[in-house]
Specification:
The complex is a heterodimer of chains A (370) and B (458). Chain A has helices at 2-7, 14-21, 36-41, 58-63, 70-81, 97-110, 126-147, 153-178, 186-196, 201-215, 237-244, 272-281, 293-307, 321-336, 354-367, and strands at residues 26-29, 45-48, 89-93, 114-118, 225-231, 248-255, 311-317, 341-346. By secondary structure, chain A is α/β, with parallel strands linked by helices. In chain A, the strands form 2 sheets. In chain A, strands 2-1-3-4 form a 4-stranded parallel beta sheet, with helices on both faces. A 4-stranded parallel beta sheet of chain A has the order 6-5-7-8, sandwiched between helices. Chain A is globular, with a radius of gyration of 20 Å. In chain B, 56% of the residues lie in helices and 7% in strands. The chains are: A alpha/beta (370), B alpha/beta (458).
Chain lengths: 370, 458
C-alpha cells in the first residue's frame, strides 16, 4: 500500500518508466468506454490519462477556453507541455464535448503518429451495439497495426479473463470498504484505482492480491459518517482526502475513476469483440448515455443501500454539462429514497477550492447530525 | 431573494403568444406615424424589439415574418386543441420531418426562447432563474433553459413529446431535453449522428433516422402518407431554392441583404420549412434584397466591413446588434446557424423523400459541424467556404458561454482562418440570450475597435 501511495499520483510512475525502458509501448485513453482489453491484448500498456499535479492551465486555456472543464484543460496542459511525452499515441473517444475538445487540440499540436478515434454511441439498442462492435473491430485493426502484431481472438479472451479477475478483486476491495468498520478508506481506494489505471491488468491483478492481503485485517474506526460520492470524471485523490479529513468516510462511490469503471462489466456473447461491446456500451453508467437514467439511478441507489451510507455527495467539475444536469435528478431521487445529498460543484484540482469544499462537507455532516 | 413564482398563463410560450398577437392588428404597410404610435404603447422590451424589426427598410418583410411566426405559435396551440401533437424539437432537427405527419406540429426550443426574449418584458430571465432554482447548472445554455425553465413550471404550454438529435453535437442541449422529458413525464424520441463521416457512419445515421420515423409513426398512430410527404417536401424544396437565391445575393458589395435577414432566415428555417408560410417569407426577403441591389442601396455611407459570424449571434437586442452594425457600415453576412445547407429533395418515392430528409437532417447546423469526426475541422471547412463565397473580410465568434464544444475549437478555427485565408476573427464573450452577461454597448465597442484597427487596416 505504501508503494501505491507514492505512485498513485505520479504520472510517469516507476512502473511506466520501467515498461518504457524495456521497449514497451504506451497508449493513452481517457474515457472508461475504451476497452483496454484490446490494447493489452496487443502487448501495449493502456494508460488512462490523468491530470495529476493539477498544473496551471495557460496552455490548456489557450486552446480550450475557461468555459471548458478544468480536468480536460489540465490534461491538455500536461500533454502540450511535454509531461505526457512518454505516450506513443492516443485513443480518443467522444465521451463528452470537453473530452473531444481536449483530444482534438492535443492531436492538433502534438500530431502523434498513432491517433485512433473510437466512436461510442450515446444509447444502447441493437443497432448501436452492432455499430459499436464494428467500431471495436476497427480499433483492433488499428491497435494491431500500431503494435506490429495480430490481435487474435484467443489473446482477446485472455485479456478479458485478466480484467475479469481484476474486477473481481476490486469488488473485494470495495467490500472491505463497505463493511463496518471498514478496512480501507476512500482515499486509499482512489489511490489503488489511480495506480491501476497506469498498469497492465495482469500486473494490477497481482498488486491487488497484495493490497487485499495487507488490508484484510485492518480497521478504520475514527470516522463520523459513511458517505457515498458520485459524479464527474475525477482523479483527485486529494479531494477524497480533504473530504475524509473532516471525519467523513467515503464508503462507496459511483465515480468514473471508481466503481463505474469496473463494477458491471457483464456480457454473454461468445465472440470476444461482441462481448466487449456488451461489456462497455451495455454498462456505461455515465450521463453521456441517453435514455438510460433509470438504470443509472438504480445502480447508484443499489450502491448506497449496499454500503449503508448516511448521505451522498454529488460532485461535478464546473462546466460539466452531463453531470451538472444529471445531478438535479439524482439529488431528487436520492432524497426521495431518504438519502440526504450534498451537491458540490467545484473547480477541478483547485487548491483555492479546498477550504470551501471542507466547510461544505462539515456543514453537511452537521446536517446529518454527525 | 424573493421566490420566483410563475402563475398560470405566465409561461413563456403562452405569454409570447399573447404578446405576438398584436402583430395581427398591424397593417402590412404600416406608416411611420402608425409605427410611432405602436411603439408608444408597447412595454419597453417589446418596443425595443419592434423598433428593430420595423425599421423602414425592412418593415414589410418583418411584419410578414412576425405574422408567420405568430401563425406558427397559434398553430401549435390549435394542433393540441384539435387532438394533434405538439412536438418539441431542437433547432438542428428539420421541422419538415414533423410536418410530413398529419396532426403533428414542431415547436422549436431555441426559437421559443428567442421569441420570449424578443417579446416579453424582462425577456427570458425569470424562466432562466426558475431553472437555476431547481439546481440546474449556471453554465447551461440559455437558448434551451429559458424555454425549458418555463415548461418546468408546469404553468405553460406543454409539448406532447420531445425529439432530441443533439447528443454528440451538444451535451447541454441533449441533457436539458432529456431532463425535461423525464421531469414532465413525456416521451423522448431521439436520433444520434455517429461522429463519423465515413460511408459506414452515414449509413448508420440513415438507419437511426428511419428508426426514428418508425417511432414517430407509432407515437402518432399513423403511417406516413406519400402524398402529404410530397406536398410538404415540395414546399420545403421551394423554400430551399429561395434560400440559395438569397445566399447568392449576399455576394454583392455592398451587400444588398439586410443584416437581420440572417436571423429571419433561420428563424423561418427552424420552424416552418415545409409550409407555404416559409416560402412566402423567403420570397419576401429575396425581393427586398433584389430591390436594394437594383437601387444600390446601403443603410450607411459605405460598407466598411463584411463580417461572417462563426456560430450564433446575440438575440437580446436586435436593434443594438443587427441594425446598429448595418448603420455603422458593418454587414452581418450571416452566422453559423445560417449554414443550413438545404438540398432539394427527390420527390419520386417515399424512400427518396425519406433519404432526402435524412440527408438534410445530417447537415443541419451544429449536427454537421459539431457532430463531425472532428469538430474544428468540419467547422473550419464550412466557415472557410462561406467566408470565401460571401467575400467576408472578417469573422466574429460570439463566445456564447454555454457552447463548450465550439469554445473547444474556436482557437484552432481562428488561427487557421488567419493562416489560410488571412481573415481575422474577433472572439467575444457573452450570453446570446441573456443581456446581463455582457451589455450590448460593450459588444459594440469591441466590434467597432476590431473593425477600425484590424479589419480596415488588414
Ligand atoms: S464521465 Fe463519462 S464521458 Fe467522462 S470519462 Fe467518464 S465515462 Fe467517459
Ligand atoms: S450549441 Fe451552443 S447555443 Fe446551441 S444549444 Fe448548444 S450550447 Fe446552446
Amino acid at each position: 500500500m505504501r508503494t501505491m501511495q507514492s505512485q498513485s499520483t505520479d504520472l510517469y510512475s516507476e512502473y511506466v518508466r520501467d515498461w518504457k525502458e524495456k521497449g514497451g509501448k504506451v497508449l493513452g485513453y481517457a474515457c472508461v468506454a475504451t476497452p483496454v482489453e484490446i490494447i493489452e491484448a496487443a502487448g501495449v500498456l493502456p494508460y488512462r490519462i490523468k491530470a495529476f499535479g493539477h498544473p496551471d492551465t495557460e496552455l490548456g486555456d489557450a486552446y480550450l477556453a475557461r468555459f471548458n472543464c478544468r480536468f480536460c484543460r489540465s490534461c491538455l496542459q500536461l500533454g502540450l507541455e511535454g509531461s505526457y511525452d512518454f505516450l506513443d499515441g492516443l485513443v480518443e473517444t467522444n465521451g463528452c464535448d470537453h473530452l473531444r475538445g481536449m483530444f482534438e487540440n492535443w492531436q492538433h499540436v502534438k500530431k502523434y503518429d498513432f491517433f485512433h478515434y473510437l466512436k461510442v454511441p450515446h444509447f444502447l439498442r441493437e443497432d448501436s451495439l452492432e455499430y459499436f462492435t464494428d467500431e471495436l473491430a476497427l480499433m483492433r485493426d488499428a491497435v494491431a497495426g500500431f503494435a506490429g502484431t495480430e490481435i487474435s481472438d484467443d489473446a482477446l479472451r485472455e485479456a478479458i479473463d485478466t480484467y475479469d479477475e481484476v474486477n473481481a478483486k476490486l469488488k473485494r476491495l470495495y467490500a472491505l470498504r463497505e463493511q463496518t468498520p471498514p478496512a480501507v478508506s476512500g482515499t486509499e481506494v482512489m489511490q489503488v484505482l489511480c495506480t491501476g489505471s497506469s498498469m497492465l491488468g495482469r500486473d494490477f491483478s497481482d498488486l491487488l492480491d497484495e493490497v487485499l492481503e495487507e488490508k484484510a485485517k485492518a480497521r478504520v474506526t475514527d470516522y463520523k459518517a459513511r458517505l457515498m460520492i458520485m459524479g464527474s470524471a475525477t482523479d483527485e485523490v486529494d479531494l477524497i482526502a480533504d473530504i475524509e479529513s473532516t471525519g467523513a468516510l467515503i464508503a462507496a462511490d459511483a465515480l468514473c475513476f471508481g466503481s463505474r469503471s469496473f463494477w458491471t462489466r457483464g456480457g454473454e456473447s461468445g465472440d470476444p469483440l461482441a462481448l466487449l461491446a456488451e461489456r462497455y456500451l451495455g454498462h456505461l453508467f455515465c450521463p453521456r448515455m441517453f435514455n438510460d437514467y433509470e438504470r443509472r439511478i438504480e445502480y447508484v441507489l443499489d450502491t448506497a443501500r449496499r454500503a449503508g451510507v448516511d448521505g451522498a455527495i454529488i460532485t461535478y467539475n464546473k462546466f460539466c454539462d452531463l453531470h451538472g444536469v444529471e445531478s438535479v435528478s439524482q439529488r431528487m431521487d436520492l432524497e426521495r429514497a431518504g438519502i440526504p445529498v450534498l451537491v458540490l460543484e467545484k473547480d477541478y484540482g483547485s487548491k483555492a477550492d479546498t477550504g470551501r469544499v471542507k466547510t461544505r462537507v462539515q456543514a453537511f455532516l452537521e446536517r446529518l447530525g454527525k | 431573494m424573493a421566490k420566483i413564482e410563475i402563475r398560470q398563463h405566465e409561461g413563456l410560450i403562452d405569454r409570447a403568444y399573447e404578446a405576438f398577437s398584436i402583430i395581427d392588428y398591424l397593417p402590412d404597410d404600416l406608416s411611420d406615424e402608425e409605427m410611432e404610435g405602436v411603439l408608444h404603447v408597447l412595454p419597453g422590451d417589446l418596443a425595443r424589439t419592434m423598433e428593430a424589426f420595423l425599421a423602414r427598410r425592412i418593415r414589410k418583410t418583418s411584419i410578414l415574418f412576425l405574422k408567420r411566426m405568430n401563425d406558427w405559435l397559434k398553430n401549435a396551440h390549435r394542433t393540441k386543441q384539435e387532438g394533434g401533437k405538439a412536438i418539441l424539437v431542437p433547432f438542428n432537427f428539420p421541422p419538415e420531418a414533423v410536418y410530413i405527419f398529419e396532426g403533428a406540429w414542431p415547436v422549436t426550443s431555441e426559437v421559443l426562447s428567442t421569441l420570449g426574449v424578443l417579446a416579453l418584458e424582462g425577456q427570458g430571465e425569470r424562466y432562466w432563474d426558475y431553472a437555476m432554482g431547481l439546481g440546474l447548472p449556471d453554465s447551461s445554455c440559455s437558448a434551451n433553459m429559458i424555454e425549458v425553465g418555463s415548461v418546468l413550471t408546469s404553468e405553460d404550454f406543454t409539448p406532447d413529446a420531445i425529439i432530441s438529435d443533439c447528443f454528440g453535437s451538444c451535451d447541454i442541449n441533449s441533457k436539458t431535453h432529456e431532463f425535461l422529458a423525464r421531469y414532465m413525464d413525456i416521451p423522448l424520441l431521439f436520433l444520434e449522428k455517429p461522429v463519423d463521416n465515413t460511408e459506414r457512419g452515414v449509413n448508420q445515421y440513415y438507419k437511426y433516422f428511419f428508426k426514428l420515423v418508425e417511432e414517430m409513426e407509432e407515437f402518432l398512430g399513423q403511417k406516413l402518407d406519400e402524398d402529404r410527404m410530397r406536398e410538404v417536401l415540395g414546399l420545403a424544396n421551394q423554400a430551399s431554392e429561395l434560400y440559395w437565391e438569397l445566399w447568392d445575393l449576399h455576394k454583392f458589395r455592398p451587400c444588398p441583404v439586410p443584416n437581420i435577414f440572417s436571423l429571419m432566415t433561420y428563424g423561418t428555417r427552424f420552424t416552418q420549412w415545409g409550409t407555404q408560410n416559409a416560402v412566402d417569407t423567403m420570397r419576401s426577403m429575396v425581393d427586398v434584397a433584389k430591390q436594394r441591389l437594383e437601387k444600390r442601396d446601403y443603410p450607411a455611407d459605405e460598407e466598411v466591413a463584411r463580417s461572417l459570424w462563426t456560430y450564433t449571434s446575440y438575440y437580446y437586442d436586435m436593434a443594438g446588434l443587427f441594425n446598429w452594425m448595418e448603420e455603422s457600415g458593418i454587414t452581418h453576412l450571416g452566422d453559423g446557424l445560417d449554414l443550413v445547407f438545404p438540398s432539394v429533395i427527390d420527390l419520386t418515392s417515399r424512400e427518396t423523400m425519406l433519404r432526402g430528409v435524412a440527408e438534410i437532417a445530417r447537415n443541419m447546423p451544429m449536427t454537421r459541424q459539431m457532430g463531425a469526426s472532428s469538430m474544428s475541422v468540419q467547422w473550419l471547412e464550412d466557415i472557410t467556404w462561406a467566408a470565401r463565397e460571401l467575400d467576408a473580410d472578417c469573422c466574429i465568434y460570439c463566445g456564447h458561454h454555454s457552447c463548450k464544444q465550439t469554445w473547444s475549437g474556436a482557437s484552432v478555427v481562428r488561427s487557421e482562418l488567419m493562416k489560410r485565408e488571412r481573415i481575422p476573427t474577433l472572439i467575444l464573450q457573452g450570453d446570446s440570450w441573456i443581456r446581463r452577461m455582457t451589455p450590448m454597448s460593450a459588444l459594440q465597442e469591441y466590434i467597432e475597435e476590431f473593425v477600425k484597427n484590424v479589419v480596415k487596416r488588414g
